[in-house]
Amino acid sequence: FGAAHSEDGRRRLAAATGDPDTAVTLAGLLSGAQGPGRDEDGALALDLLVVLDAPQLDVEGAAVLVEALA
Question: pTM for the complete prediction?
Answer without folding.
Answer: 0.81
